[in-house]
Amino acid sequence: MRSMRIYLDYAATTPVDESVKKVMEPFLSGLFGNAGSLHVYGQEASSALDLSREKVANLIGAGFREIIFTGSATEANNLAIRGAVKKAGSKHGLSKPKIIISAIEHESVLETARDLARESGAEIAILQVDKEGFVNPNELEKLLDKNTVLVSVMYANNEVGSVEPIKEIAAAIKKFKNETGVYPLLHTDAVQAFQYLPCNVADLGVDLMTISSHKIYGPKGVGALYVKNISAGIDPIITGGGQEFGLRSGTENIAGIVGFASAAEIAAGIREKENERVERLRNLFYEKIKSSLREAELNGPNLSSPGRLPNNLNIYFPRSKADELLIACSTQGIAVSAGSACQSRSSAPSHVLRAMYGNDERAIGSLRITFGRGTTGKEIDTATGTIIKIIGEKSNPSTRFAISGQTRT
Ligand code: PLP
Asked: Please, which residues have CB within 8 angstroms of residue 401's CB and are 6 or more apart in sequence?
């Protein structure tokens, strides 16, 4: 008999939707052509690629030629940032371009910016966040200057679910453009947002936007970058056969791209209904935890705030060690996370919680629990019961971190 398993780590990745699998299948067998070939096999692949591009473009209000498929969101973030810096050098001759990023970006943005600072002398300015994980557009205005080529602020954070004020950021950049004639591009990483929030690029006012397939019930290994007015803003970072309008060479992953486009359509179609459902389950989970573990505290925006993703929970358990809790949960079949999936490979405490609270204690004792399409009420009951028991067993009876309704000796 298979032991019980409950997956509560939907921000790390999602299973591939059954109907997505079905639309991909023909492209893994009979329809295997290279989209660059002129014969019928190539034409079949190329039509599937065109159709997928059109679908993704329509879903975000972009033009057909503004969607660049990549091998991941990490690659899309690299293309946006490195591509903008490269263009600034090649087109405007800027020797020390400046990039502004928020303090809570995903590693694929943070590390890329750091690498550019080391390798090409770019200046990196960090936009700090408040205790709920929000950037302040007024603070951005202070950082913008004539060397700024790119501002990159994520649409929604992967650890605490804070939804950043992208429209206000776009307005601040526009104001700066009007006053100075300098045109910094605005990039947003919408990887965690796409399933839950409207992502129309014109409404948001962004020039570049990253999305990922495997966070929205599509296959792994596919991402996309929206690039406004494609030839203007960025240079390629992968060169070769000139695929993807010259911005990302390499034979296209047709099965993956077809699956991604299908997953994106489904995600956008069920957005509102699914938001309500996961939000209800997420709130129930927190209520149950709080009613037994009074000292537990929420990290990030209020649960009733529209500024928080509906599927995200991040809880601080004072005096606990998240990695120990995580292992204990895993032993009981419950999959949660101590931060982002990438970070769990290193023992460093979450840079997001550190940026929000200014200390490591909070970062060390917090768990991220994220809900998704497979989450049920029964899972919430079982998972909360197990976590409450684990914390109860780990906590020192002499502390105030006792289980209410239970006598601890
Ligand atoms: N950006 C954010 C906000 C993420 O959460 C992730 C994945 O965890 C990525 C980028 C990287 O996505 P991918 O796994 O497609 O490279």
From this structure: 293, 295, 317, 318, 319, 391, 395
Contact at 8 Å (CB) between 322 and 367?
yes
Which amino acid is it at 206? V
DSSP state of 172: H
Catalytic residue among 114, 342, 344, 403: 342
CA atoms within 13 A on the CB side of 169: 28
Which tokens sit at 87?
């263009």
pLDDT score for 93: 73
- Give domain status of residue 152, yes or no: yes
Q: Is there a single domain that holds both residue 173 and residue 102?
A: yes
pTM for the model stands at 0.94
* pLDDT tens for each residue of 55-66: 999 999 999 999
Q: Where are the alpha helices (DSSP H) in 209-359?
A: 230-233, 254-292, 322-331, 351-357
For 256, half-sphere exposure in the C-beta direction (CA atoms, 13 angstrom radius) is: 16
Identify whether residues 323 and 220 lie together within a single domain.
no
**In this structure, what token pair is assigned to residue 333?**
């079949």
Which CA distances in Å does 69 have to 145, 243, 257? 31, 10, 7
Ligand 1 pocket at CB < 6 A? 72-74, 106, 108, 154, 158, 189, 191-192, 212, 223, 340-341
Q: What is the pLDDT of residues 337-379, one digit of tens each?
A: 986 444 445 557 899 999 999 988 888 999 999 999 999 999 9
Q: Return the CATH number at 314.
A: 3.90.1150.10
Ligand 1, atom nearest to 220 Cα? 15
Domain carrying residue 288: 6-14+271-407
CA of 397 to the centre of ligand 1 (A): 40
Active site residue 342: yes
Q: Which residue shows structure tokens 């992968």? A: 238
d(CA 167, CA 172): 9
